[in-house]
Amino acid sequence: MAYKPISHTSEVGFEVSSMDLEKLFVESARALFREMLGSLYGIKIQGEKKIYLEGEDIEDLLHKWLSQLLYEFETSKMVFRQFDVKIEFEDDKFKLHAKLGGEPFDLSKHSIKKALKAVTRHKLHVERERGIWRASVIIDV
Fold this sequence. Notes:
- The protein has helices at 21-37, 58-76, and strands spanning 2-8, 11-18, 47-55, 78-90, 93-104, 118-119, 125-129, 132-140.
- It is α+β, with helices and mostly antiparallel strands.
- The chain has one domain (2-140): Archease domain (Archease, Possible Chaperone, Chain: A, domain 1).
- Strand 4 and strand 5 form a beta hairpin.
- 29% of the residues are buried.
């Protein structure tokens, strides 16, 4: 698995890769929180959250996944570092079941490196080439 930040004017982005689609979604989630917090170090597993999403295609599902993680941070003020993701294709849709582990955001312990506003569809791309899954994501700041 690999993670690489992408430089982009007035936005941030990242590329991730993995041999496994579910791990690609896990690494994308970790990359999102790394971009926001700078590091996942020190986040304890004090609570869990379950998420269920559907997408028309794998890029739609990734967009919804990362958008949901930002929504969870904004509404519940939770930061996550543990992601258990299951993806299946059923009834012509991609379906994601996830369990997140993390803790409440605490300014005395965590810091915001970048205030992320929204996951964009601009240049969002998922592909599989030679057995490796790759994703590129751009986020408004």
